[in-house]
Amino acid sequence: MSPAKRSVVITSLVVLLGTGVFWWGTDGFTALTAETARRVEILRSPRPLPAVTLEDQDGNVFNLRDYRGKLLAVDFIFTRCTTLCRSMGMIFKQIRDLIPPESLGRDFLLISISFDPDHDDPASLKKYGQTYGADGKIWRIARVPDKAELKSLLESFGIVVIPDEFGGYEHNTALHLVGRDGKLRLISDIDKAVPFAEQVVALL
Amino acid sequence: MKRTSSPYAVRMGFGLGISYLFLATPMVRDWMEASMSRHMLVQMPLLVVIGIVACRLLPAHWQNSVLARVGGSIPCVVVALFASSYWMLPRALDAALNDPLAEMAKFLSLPLLVGFPLVLAWRRLTLIGRGFVWTNFISMLAVLGWLYIVAPVRVCNSYLVNDQETAGWYMVIASVLLFLWWLGTLLVGGGVGPDKPDRNGTGTKLA
């Protein structure tokens, strides 16, 4: 084979292979960030969640498994958060108010899970809940007291929490929907409260 | 032309291996990868430099025969473009932090698929070819940096949003400096760019 021909053939192979790797590494050019990838993957195959023990704002201890058979909206917070979690509270409130009242508590519930159990005792959870009108039944604010369980819960949701320079945290914030089978089935942007609620209503 | 057999090349090769292993130690990796700027603008370029130096330590006739086998300079440049672009994806950065396989792929591909082929190709590239590589790289750096500065979202789950903005500014600054330097070499070096293309394959270097 002449050098020129060889060059053309190998270059084409490289382009083909390189494009293939990009295709594979970005879920068909759709997911350029890990956050998008997480959402795409959940849509494709809903993910089972660990049966972790939680403690809510009233000190009640319960299990994530107790929500089987119901639709559950989940977000992750820490109560000292002064930025995104504030709006998260408002967004969850908005979602709750968009769901038909007869389904609330029976077929659809909400839970805000704190990933900072050291600071967030039931008292601070209660204070956070009161700010947004979380009643502790339809909408619980809870923490995972056990560190190992918390870690496995965050991992299965794909939540990455990193400390920031102000003693707080930064984390990927999103709206999560857990199906009746206990599997994580949908992750949306936090500014998509209305479409999220519509999805829930369609599933009721 | 048997540079590998010279004590100098052996010493350099040894030092290079040590630096590579040093970069791969968990402590250094953790430190480098703790910030987005260090990860993208220190660790990754150093890995590319290791590939560059490694290739230049090979005797010229080896380089030539490898270059002939892989089909000349164009496939080399294209491989380097693909591999370097891949590691500019925010998702690849996150993966390198969370997935040991991705981290390994990064440590292998940056020297072997970016630094090494670039050196192989460089001596055969014309001024236009080199200009393409430089301007492509510089503009990619500037655009990516700008995106990181203005992005309304955090592109990496593993890095703070401030860190992303800082990395963006460093990238823009680096691209401007690189461009000025490259332009400068065009003006002062008799108009042939940072490295004078030559035919006999000696004395070229990739800056």
Question: How would you describe this structure in keywords?
Answer:
heterodimer, A: 204 residues, alpha+beta, 2 domains, eight-stranded mixed β-sheet, two-stranded antiparallel ribbon, 10 strands, 22% strand, B: 207 residues, mainly alpha, 9 helices
Mind telling me which CATH architecture of the largest domain in chain A this is?
A: 3-Layer(aba) Sandwich
| Beta-strand content estimate of chain B | under 5%
Distance between the termini of chain A: 66 Å
Radius of gyration of chain A: 21 Å
> What is the CATH topology of the largest domain in chain A?
Glutaredoxin
Q: Supply the number of helical segments of chain B.
A: 9
How would you describe the overall organization of this protein?
The complex is a heterodimer of chains A (204) and B (207). Chain A folds into 2 domains: 3-41, no CATH class; 46-203, Glutaredoxin. In chain A, 40% of the residues lie in helices and 22% in strands. Chain A contains 6 helices and 10 strands, in the order H-H-E-E-E-E-H-E-H-E-H-E-E-E-E-H. Chain A has helices at residues 3-25, 34-44, 84-98, 122-132, 147-157, 193-203; strands spanning 47-48, 53-56, 61-63, 71-77, 108-114, 139-143, 161-163, 169-171, 175-178, 183-188. In chain A, the strands form 2 sheets. In chain A, strands 1-10-9-4-5-6-2-3 form an 8-stranded mixed beta sheet, sandwiched between helices. In chain A, helix 3 packs parallel to helix 6 (193-203). Chain B has one domain. Chain B has 9 helices and no strands. The longest helix of chain B has 28 residues, at 161-188. Chain B is globular, with a radius of gyration of 18 Å. The chains are: A alpha+beta (204), B mainly alpha (207).
